[in-house]
Amino acid sequence: MKRTNTFSIGEFSEKTGISIRTLHYYDEMGLLQPEKHPTSGHRIYKHQDILTLQKIVSLKFLGYSLDKILHLLNESSFTVDLNETLSLHFQALEKEKERIEQSMTAIKRVTKLLEVEGEVDSAILFTLIHSMQTENIQKEWMKRHMQADIAEELSKKTEEEKATLDQTFIQLAKEVKQLYGKPVEDPKVQEMIQTYLEASFAFLGEDLIQKLADTDVEELDIQELENLTPSPFTDDEQQWLNEAMEYCMKQAELD
């Protein structure tokens, strides 16, 4: 139906760029309810509906939910009281921005890993992704239980350095699956441990290693950190790996 300054739902959708499905939903919610033709029941949109839609789109842009927008649409004007609500929305958007940036960084790291490795065991890959996901929580743990500068130095590690350590961990995991069951003193087992430790030490650097060595952390607190980054290994594999590392450390002390 065409009238001066009136639009069918198709025309209104084309004019505003809002899909017909969304316009139906806004109508059902009571956000944007145009007139209805008395006989056909077809929606008839007018210029005022464009202004109302602009308000809805603007408030959505600021991060408000549709339920909250429904309430705000009835306000004829706004005062400084709105600032409190806007501030809360800003904080929520800041957190969402941080989460998105963290996800984007993780995607880049995982993509690079798969390009280099070709294939990665799913348990190992998801362990790495989970570790990336909880990096900020791990950082907070370090701030609580260690010197603040240790957490700060670790947070400054580049994505290249982190990617290199990721690759080293994947190689360790592959070799654990292959060598598990051999005596911990087996030369191949010890070579595996030595390679991983050298890569870890290279990642940390001498100064940071010394600071970590001088830090006294309770056993329960260490367990809390380990729970944040679950192992991709079975309990038996993890115990065997721990024993192999302990043997390597003791041999280093003897040397």
Radius of gyration: 29 Å
Counting helices, strands and paired strands, the structural category is: mainly alpha
Main sheet properties? 3 strands, antiparallel
What is the number of helical segments per DSSP (H or I, 4+ residues)? 13
**Residues in β-strands, percent:** under 5%
Q: What order do the helices and strands follow?
A: EHHEEHHHHHHHHHHH
Instruction: Please mark out the parts with pLDDT under 50 across 5 or more consecutive residues, or reply none.
Output: none
How far apart lie the N and C ends?
A: 92 Å
Tell me the total number of β-strands.
Answer: 3
How are the strands ordered across the major sheet? 1-3-2
Mean pLDDT score, rounded?
A: 85
Percent helix: over 70%
Label the overall shape.
elongated
